[in-house]
Automatic annotation (TrEMBL):
The keyword Transcription regulation does not apply. This is Glyoxylate reductase/hydroxypyruvate reductase. GO terms for molecular function: glyoxylate reductase (NADPH) activity; hydroxypyruvate reductase (NADH) activity; NAD binding. Pfam families: 2-Hacid_dh, 2-Hacid_dh_C. Residues 9-325 form the D-isomer specific 2-hydroxyacid dehydrogenase catalytic domain. Residues 116-294 form the D-isomer specific 2-hydroxyacid dehydrogenase NAD-binding domain. Gene3D superfamilies: NAD(P)-binding Rossmann-like Domain (3.40.50.720). Belongs to the D-isomer specific 2-hydroxyacid dehydrogenase family. Keywords: Oxidoreductase. Coiled coil: none annotated. One of its GO terms (cellular component) is cytosol.
C-alpha cells in the first residue's frame, strides 16, 4: 500500500502551545507557522496559504476570495480560533465547499466575567479613581466625589441573551439586580433561569440602568447603537459593549457621552482594533476602553487553541469536527 500523502497546514499566528503541539505531533499534516504574536502581513498570508490543505486563522485575519484563490483547490478546511466569523468570506467559502471550524462555548465564562468586570469598573469609575490616587488628586473625603452607579435595585438590559448574554445575567443577579430585561429576535426559554423579561428594544433602552450589548454582528445589528439608540437611554444609564465594535456607531457614542445623554460607557471592542491613541473616546473620563480581552485567561486561550487544532485535524481527515460552523 502506498503511504497517504501528508497534508500541508498554514497557521497564521503563534497560538498557545496546547494547540500547536497537537498539530505538530499529528502524522496527517506538516505545519507552516507565522511564528509571531503579531498578525501575519497580508503578503505573507497570501504566500503562506499557497497550496495549503488546511488554514488555522484568527479573528484579525481577513480570509476573503483573494486568500482562497491564493490557497488554490487543495484547501479543504479553515479553522478559526474565535467564536466570531465575520472575518471569513462565508459565501465564497461555502461555494468552494470548504469546511469551517470555530470555538463557541469555550470562552463564554471568561467573556462573561470580563463583561461584569468592565461594567463595575465603568459604573463605579475605577479607572478615574486609580488615576486620582496616582496623580495626587485624592485629598479629603468628599460626599459626592467619584460617585458612580450601583447594581443593587437596578434594572439591567441585555441585548442578545445567547450563551454569553445569559452567562452575564447569571453573574449580575446576585448583585441585587431588581429586573433583568432582554431583547432579541425571539423569547428564550432559558431566560426563566434569571427571571428575564423579554421586551422590545425601545422598552429595554428606556427602562434600563445598565445596557449590556452581547449580540452577534449581523446586517441587522451593524451600527445598531446609534444616535437614536442612545437618545432612548436614561441620562444616568451605563452602556457596555463586549460583542463587536461595529455594533456601535462610535461617533454617536462620543456625542452621547459628551452631551450627557448617557452617563458612561465601557467597551472591550472597537472599530478599528486597535483604536488609535488619539481617538476622541480615549480622552473621555466616562469611557473605559479595553483592548479586546474578553477571553484573555490562560486556561480559556489554551482550550480555544486545542479546539481549533482538533477542528482542523478532523476537517483534514474528513471526520466530524468537535465544533463545525454549519454553512
Amino acid at each position: 500500500m502506498s503511504a497517504q500523502p501528508v497534508l500541508r497546514v498554514f497557521v497564521t499566528r503563534r497560538i498557545p502551545q496546547e494547540g500547536l503541539e497537537l498539530l505538530q505531533r499529528a502524522a496527517v499534516c506538516t505545519v507552516s507557522l507565522w511564528d509571531s504574536d503579531e498578525p501575519v502581513p497580508r503578503a505573507e498570508l497570501l504566500k503562506g496559504v499557497e497550496g495549503a490543505h488546511g488554514l488555522l486563522c484568527l479573528l484579525s485575519d481577513r480570509i476573503d476570495a483573494e486568500v482562497l484563490d491564493a490557497a488554490g483547490p487543495n484547501l479543504k478546511v479553515i479553522s478559526t480560533m474565535s467564536v466570531g466569523f465575520d472575518h471569513l468570506a462565508i459565501d465564497e467559502i461555502k461555494k468552494r465547499e470548504i469546511r469551517v471550524g470555530y470555538t463557541p462555548d469555550v470562552l463564554t465564562d471568561a467573556t462573561a466575567e470580563l463583561t461584569v468586570a468592565l461594567l463595575l469598573a465603568t459604573a463605579r469609575r475605577l479607572p478615574e479613581g486609580i488615576q486620582e490616587v496616582k496623580s495626587g488628586g485624592w485629598s479629603s473625603w468628599k460626599p459626592l466625589w467619584l460617585c458612580g452607579y450601583g447594581l443593587s435595585g437596578s434594572t439591567v438590559g441585555v441585548i442578545g441573551l445567547g450563551r454569553i448574554g445569559l452567562a452575564v445575567a447569571r453573574r449580575l443577579k446576585p448583585f441585587g439586580v431588581k429586573r433583568l430585561l432582554y431583547s432579541g429576535r425571539q423569547p428564550k426559554p432559558q431566560a426563566q433561569e434569571v427571571d428575564g423579561e423579554y421586551v422590545p428594544l425601545d422598552s429595554l433602552l428606556c427602562e434600563s440602568d445598565f445596557v449590556v450589548v452581547s449580540c452577534a454582528l449581523s446586517p441587522e445589528t451593524q451600527g445598531l447603537c446609534d444616535k437614536a439608540f442612545f437618545t432612548k437611554m436614561k441620562t444616568t444609564a451605563v452602556f457596555i459593549n463586549t460583542s463587536r465594535g461595529a455594533v456601535v456607531n462610535q461617533e454617536d457614542l462620543y456625542e452621547a457621552l459628551t452631551a450627557g445623554q448617557i452617563a458612561a460607557a465601557g467597551l472591550d471592542v472597537t472599530t478599528p482594533e486597535p483604536l488609535p491613541t488619539d481617538h476622541p473616546l480615549l480622552a473621555l473620563k466616562n469611557c473605559v476602553v479595553l483592548p479586546h480581552i474578553g477571553s484573555a485567561t490562560y486556561s480559556t486561550r489554551g482550550i480555544m487553541a486545542k479546539l481549533t487544532a482538533n477542528n482542523l485535524l478532523a476537517g483534514l481527515t474528513g471526520e466530524a469536527m468537535p465544533s463545525e460552523l454549519k454553512l
